[in-house]
Design brief:
8 strands; 295 residues; binds flavin-adenine dinucleotide; single chain; alpha/beta
Length: 295
């Protein structure tokens, strides 16, 4: 199913993200994660596309998405990066997706890795969006967006101007980078609407469950830590069990606030952690259901 239909039929979308197992592990190692997530009311599950984009990882993304669709009956969205790919390689991937009846793609530029010589067919995610839509307009294309601005941009305003190019190229749904302060999201939404972007935007939420995770996450994606959350992390820094509980509670509070403020969807970065994804989903299950009940 093309996920564009979801946005017409539901008031609130709830989706999950998983990543392929490490390069050295077989795809089978994700079975337990998918089995655990199957009980959750997810409208779709997106599968990341390994940084570096080696052929093994590329095939794993498609293989896992195909499993999600055929074995678990949930719609998959495949992440696809372009900065290190030629047009011929992207065509090969699109054909592979078509062969597996996968219709939904999150079109991304990908991070620029100084150790990998970029290919020059695609500079920005918007180039990939245009290319996919021209190649086969039946693909549904989503894009990424950044409530605090992408780190390569000079300002949030400039980043939103570029986001508009991506949407005009054919991205009809956006998913945000994780953030810990909902005010950043609300301010971003005001600016996005002023810029004439009207496609549904799902808020990306990552539950923080360990001290090492917060350090890695903040340094990788530059999301700022609001004082309230920084205090919580500091207080429980040396008590892993307490920090995990507090991180889950914080994510739930963020989600409930976002839903109360009419967010179009919640995209939960599960980090393949079934226990955490289940705890969060169970805490908001009735809220999700109530949002989608007919009036
Ligand atoms: P772009 O939209 O191209 O933006 C990148 C920068 O270029 C921004 O500063 C933007 O303002 C600027 N820009 C964009 N268009 C133009 C233009 N036309 N002219 C001038 N400047 C422009 N990475 C992975 O490797 N694998 C994944 O699976 C993955 N999944 C992700 C999922 C989500 C929801 C998000 C938010 C990110 C994900 N990423 C993933 C990370 C992403 O690849 C990086 O953040 C990357 O640096 C930017 O990708 P993008 O698609 O947002 O790029």
């Amino acid at each position: 199913m093309n996920i564009k239909h979801l946005f017409h039929s539901k008031k609130l979308i709830y989706s999950l993200e998983v990543f392929p197992p490490k390069k050295t592990s077989s795809v089978d190692t994700i079975y337990n994660t998918l089995l655990g997530l199957r009980g959750l009311p997810a409208d779709f599950i997106s599968v990341t596309y390994g940084a570096g984009g080696s052929d093994t990882q590329k095939n794993k993304t498609c293989e896992i998405a195909s499993l999600i669709k055929s074995e678990y009956g949930i719609e998959p969205v495949v992440h696809l990066t372009c900065v290190n790919s030629s047009k011929a390689e992207i065509i090969q991937t699109l054909e592979q997706l078509k062969a597996h009846r996968i219709e939904n793609i999150l079109a991304l530029r990908g991070d620029i890795n100084p150790d990998i010589k970029p290919k020059h067919d695609f500079q920005h995610a918007s180039d990939l969006v245009t290319f996919i839509k021209e190649y086969d307009s039946s693909f549904h294309v989503s894009g990424a967006c950044y409530p605090e601005g992408h780190c390569d941009s000079n300002s949030l305003e400039e980043d939103i101007e570029h986001l508009k190019i991506k949407v005009d190229a054919g991205a009809t749904h956006l998913m945000t980078q994780l953030f810990f302060d909902n005010d950043h999201f609300y301010q971003f939404m005001d600016k996005v609407i002023q810029a004439g972007i009207t496609v549904p935007i799902e808020a990306g939420i990552m539950p923080i469950t360990s001290k090492s995770q917060i350090e890695r996450t903040v340094s990788m994606c530059g999301a700022s830590l609001p004082p309230k959350f920084a205090k919580i992390i500091n207080k429980y820094a040396n008590n892993p069990a307490a920090l995990k509980e507090a991180g889950i509670a914080y994510a739930i509070e963020q989600i409930i606030d976002l839903i109360s403020n009419q967010v179009a969807g919640i995209h939960l970065y599960t980090m393949n952690n079934v226990e955490v994804a289940t705890k969060i989903t169970d805490s908001i299950r009735n809220i999700i259901l109530s949002c989608n009940q007919p009036n």
